[in-house]
Amino acid sequence: MDLHVKLPDFLIIGAQKAGTTSLHYYCNQHPNICMSDVKEPMFFASTSLPRTTFQEQTAKDPYAFFYLDEYSDLFKKALRSKTIRRSFLSYLPFPVRAFSSSLLLGEASTAYLANPFPSSVWIKKMIPNVKLIVILRNPIERAVSAYKMYAKNGVDSRSLQEAMEFGLNGQESSIDQGRWYLTLGLYSRLLGPYLKAFRKEQIFIGDYHEYDNDNLGFLQKVFAFLHVRPFVPKDLKRLNIYDIQRTTGLDKSIEVKMKTFFEKDIQALQPMVDFDVQKWLN
User: Fold this and answer.
1) Mean pLDDT across the stretch 55-81?
2) What pLDDT is stored for residue 96 in this prediction?
3) Does residue 220 contact residue 149 with C-beta atoms inside 8 Å?
4) Which of 125, 141, 174 is nearest to 243 (CA)?
């Protein structure tokens, strides 16, 4: 097997707080899929030389994989591990479900949807035939989930109401992550560059609500999109869940303001997707 420069066959590009970590985990269990050794390498979102090593990586300085060989190494390590496992299974003295000889390479970085420029440009230039997977979530729920994650991790000490009001009032938060609670839910703006750069058949846009209610059924749609056989992962646990209670704790008046904030973008998004996003305004 050629283990020189390796680039992915598909990318899970977002959205943040829409189940991408779990999807990365499920895909990596498929015998014909090999996910990068690290989730969120953010290679195509890098705009400057790295200032940290991966071991020193923080939420503030996340771009550790700037050089092509560093990025490619993520797939080499994962490929070696999966290839060894496949070789071992071929020598077992009892029947094992047959594996295809081919492996799809994938990775998941929500920064690609969050930063469509330069991400869409670099992806198109370097892997023009790549497949892209996007999961879209009610932008209000997404914002609340992101806040709860950062609050739990000690990054944002503001109240939920204060954090959302900052964005609604157009204020510039001193908390880096807090600047994006609302803007990362403006999906039509974020998807636009990808829909212009790539063919429709290269992009899978899924509904988080469907994924959340039937993750196995949703997963089979993803596998069909990737043209790999149906598969049931041994472990279907959900990862990085911060919001079991959804929008609990969000003041009703602020929720109404948030719906107004997102309404125009949701209307623009509807022709881009094959599921109902108007429900987010109900």
Assistant:
1) 70
2) 36
3) no
4) 141
Tens digits of residue pLDDT in 141-159: 999 999 999 999 898 999 9
φ and ψ of 84, to 5 deg: -60, -40
Query: How far apart, in whole angstroms, are the C-alpha atoms of residue 38 and residue 109?
Result: 10
Report d(CA 20, CA 17) in Å as an integer.
7
* Residue scoring higher pLDDT (199 or 52): 199
Tokens of 248: 């609990």
| pLDDT tens by residue, 155-210 | 899 999 999 999 999 877 777 777 789 999 999 999 999 999 999 999 999 999 99
Tokens linked to 21 = 């970590």
Is the Cβ–Cβ distance between 168 and 254 less than 8 Å?
yes
Q: How confident is the model at residue 48 (pLDDT cuts 50, 70, 90)?
A: low
Coil vs helix vs strand at 135? strand
Distance in angstroms (rounded) separating the CA atoms of residues 50 and 66? 6
Closest by Cα among 126, 113, 139, 142 to 205? 113
Strands (E), the chain: 10-14, 33-35, 104-108, 131-136, 203-207
According to DSSP, the β-strands at 131-136 and 203-207 are parallel
Residue labelled with tokens 């390796």: 6
Q: Record the pTM.
A: 0.87
Nearest to 20 by CA among 12, 32, 28: 12
**φ, ψ dihedrals at 245, nearest 5°:** -95, 15
Q: Name the residue type at position 254.
A: I
Distance CA 124, CA 59 (A): 26
